[in-house]
Amino acid sequence: MASLTDLVNLNLSDTTEKIIAEYIWIGGSGMDLRSKARTLSGPVTDPSKLPKWNYDGSSTGQAPGEDSEVILHPQAIFKDPFRRGNNILVMCDCYTPAGEPIPTNKRYNAAKIFKDPEVAAEEPWYGIEQEYTLLQKDINWPLGWPVGGFPGPQGPYYCGVGADKSFGRDIVDAHYKACLYAGINISGINGEVMPGQWEFQVGPSVGIASGDQIWVARYILERITEIAGVVVSFDPKPIPGDWNGAGAHCNYSTKSMRNEGGYEIIKSAIEKLKLRHKEHIAAYGEGNERRLTGRHETADIHTFSWGVANRGASVRVGRETEQNGKGYFEDRRPASNMDPYVVTSMIAETTIIWKP
Amino acid sequence: MANLTDLVNLNLSECTNMIIAEYIWVGGSGIDLRSKARTVKGPITDASQLPKWNYDGSSTGQAPGEDSEVILYPQAIFKDPFRRGDNILVMCDCYTPQGQPIPTNKRHNAAKIFNHPAVAAEVPWYGIEQEYTLLQKDVNWPLGWPVGGYPGPQGPYYCAAGADKAFGRDIVDAHYKACLYSGINISGINGEVMPGQWEFQVGPSVGISASDEIWVARYILERITEVAGVVLSLDPKPIMGDWNGAGAHTNFSTKSMREAGGYEVIKKAIEKLAIRHAEHIAAYGEGNERRLTGHHETADINTFKWGVANRGASIRVGRDTEKEGKGYFEDRRPASNMDPYVVTAMIAETTLLWKP
Questions:
Q1: Residue B146 contacts by C-beta under 8 Å, 6 or more apart in sequence?
Q2: Could you say which of B2, B38, B82 has the minimum Cβ distance to residue A188?
Q3: Helices (H), chain A
Q4: Is the CB of A227 less than 8 angstroms away from the CB of B1?
Q5: Confidence (pTM)
Q6: What backbone phi and psi angles, to 5 degrees, belong to B122?
Q7: Are B130 and B217 in contact (CB under 8 A)?
Q8: Is B1's pLDDT higher than 60?
Q9: Which of A161, A165, A174 sits opposite B4 (nearest CB)?
């Protein structure tokens, strides 16, 4: 019998110019990813050439049953690492039939902020460190942990190697190559302090592209864990107790920060973030209070602090940046389940547009 | 469904000139290996083309939390046998942000010794015989041994074949080819006297490269055992009683020893090693007193003795070397968990620089 794999891996470019486009969007919780596919004439490299589409919003908590169509606007294209060939992944955002962004559409407002002339002139760069935890299917206990018990305490696992220290590397490595293939600007990966927890970094990417790439990277990760029979969790504190949480540290710089005298600009920006600490925290992910305790390399959620090379601070500035007098800084507050559209645009808005 | 293997094996050279560089370093215990990966523009042919990097030293016992950055200096590159293509493994050593080697960085001092003119002129060669034990995951009992019991006594296992005598050959053979692929000078392998114990040899390699190769070979081995679901142990006496320990015998020669009259130079070198026996033993690996008992092909830890073809001696000189009047000798004292930077540099220092 022909194997399923033979069929999934068929290279259609020999027989047709049709391609498959997987339209991806964010569902009603603000964190659940959804997708469906359609056939188009290919190849397509420009999202503006793709048709709008629609889906049943009443099945995702985004529209009432009697008026259920939500319209998908294609925004960014990536190569599909699963179907390969000329097939594509399409990151979309969601609108009412009347053309208004629906409430869970955070990209729309972010795009407005990034188009603001003041912001655009500063060319904001983002490097996002996405942490996540792998869980054993059905029991939702971390991968590699004994069922009904706990592994030895944290220490050996950060960047660790070996069957007793590293759980799920095949998923992480498959994800790394798949993202590079797709055209996502994935800059690295590492095993994290809690066993079964991992991190990948995307960036530096400019403006709205950072949010698009993180969302598609999350989608690719969830598709890969689906194949592996493992569950991915973006919960910021998956296991209470002496186990690290999961964050999405956001590294940030503007043109002024990257040039001579940048360190002063950075310090001014950090001052502004300090004044709006509560507003930012409210937008930095649900459940973050379980994670930002002041322990496990976090700063307490109620306190704003910053420091050079200080992993216990809200904002960390690297030694190189201090030494060079210019560079970037790291906002360590966002949780792993943050919406990158919200976080990246809010940092730009507070530091570039907002006046105290 | 698309396969995880398809994704892990994606050949990215067709769609990007970016490569993945896995930076490897030695962690806070002096024997734990750590690594993380980053994307760089390829191809890379020399370590000097790679950027310095940094990691969270507070997570590996190498820095405090409020000043946690440890800097990685790339020192040697090897082809990555897991990601293949143009992807690489990078052996690094660790420095403070001010540029000082951190206490666990033993490579820095070794490099100074190997750069010394008197040492460099003698072109020191090393052949290191790395022994190791494979353990069943979770129970940490040797591979192939019955859980709750013991196999038949030593005798049939050394260099043996058969399901009742050789345990884990797939790991050993995968490691052999992976090391050859990566460019490590691996010269051989054999099954050892204790069942579940194996040995590979690296060399002859010159100066510091012998140690870089041993560390990366250990890393590749731990990555392979991770894939196989087996635990790697470098403990020098994993099982108490009438079972062999694990060593890292270090074969050594200098230009003078390899030329006519070399046998006299060898005997003088051994004299010097005898005088500094206690200093060497202190640097030859933790727990070595459990292994160097005078039984099981070792010399007692408190006694220094040497002999031709004598496996019960601290130092053994091969019959070939004695006959030809030149060659090399074997220091049998180092434990399997020795740091090759320390051992190779110390042998060179004692025999070439030190004056009694």
A1: none
A2: B38
A3: 4-8, 107-115, 117-121, 169-182, 208-228, 255-258, 262-275, 277-283, 319-324, 340-348
A4: yes
A5: 0.93
A6: -90, 0
A7: yes
A8: no
A9: A174
Residue pLDDT, tens place only, A75-116: 999 999 999 999 999 999 999 999 999 999 999 999 999 999
Instruction: Give the burial string for B39-77 (b: 16+ CB within 10 Å, else e).
Output: bbebebeebeebeebbbbbbbbebbebebbbbbbbbbbb
The candidate with the shortest Cα–Cα distance to B204, out of B285, B306, B125, is: B125
The rounded percent of chain B whose pLDDT value lies above 70 is 99
* pLDDT band for position A43 (cuts 50, 70, 90): very high
Q: What is the pLDDT of residue A6?
A: 85
Give percent of chain A with pLDDT exceeding 70.
99
A320 to chain B: closest CA residue:
B97
Residue A2 above 80 pLDDT? no
In the predicted model, is pLDDT for residue A207 greater than 70? yes
Residue of A nearest to B83 (CA): A173
* Per-residue confidence (pLDDT) for residue B64, from 0 to 100: 87
* HEC assignment per residue over chain B: CCCHHHHHCCCHHHCCCEEEEEEEEECCCCCCEEEEEEEEECCCCCHHHCCCEEEEHHHCCCCCHHHCEEEEEEEEEEECCCCCCCCEEEEEEEECCCCCECCCCCHHHHHHHHHCHHHHCCCCEEEEEEEEEEEECCCCCECCCCCCCCCCCCCCCCCCCCCCCCCCHHHHHHHHHHHHHHCCCEEEEEECCCCCEEEEEEEEEECHHHHHHHHHHHHHHHHHHHHHCEEEECCCCCCCCCCCCCEEEEEEECHHHHCCCHHHHHHHHHHHHHHCHHHHHHCCCCCHHHCCCCCCCCCCCCCCCEEECCCCCCEEECHHHHHHCCCCEEECCCECCCCHHHHHHHHHHHHHHCCC
Q: Are strands A33-41 and A53-56 parallel, antiparallel or unpaired?
A: unpaired
Of all residues in chain A, the percent with pLDDT exceeding 90 is 90
Which of B288, B271, B277 has its CA nearest to residue B339?
A: B288
pLDDT at B126: 98
Evaluate whether A184 touches A177 at the Cβ level (below 8 Å): no
ipTM value for the complex: 0.90
Which one, of B53, B14, B344, lies nearest residue B211 by Cα?
A: B344
Cβ contacts of A23 within 8 Å, gap of 6 or more: A35, A36, A37, A38, A53, A72, A74, A90, A92
Which among A8, A156, A169 has CB closest to B2?
A8
B230 contacts A227? CB cut-off 8 A: no
Contact A164 B231 (CB under 8 A): yes
At B2 the pLDDT is 60
Q: Give me the residue label for tokens 């004598």.
A: B310
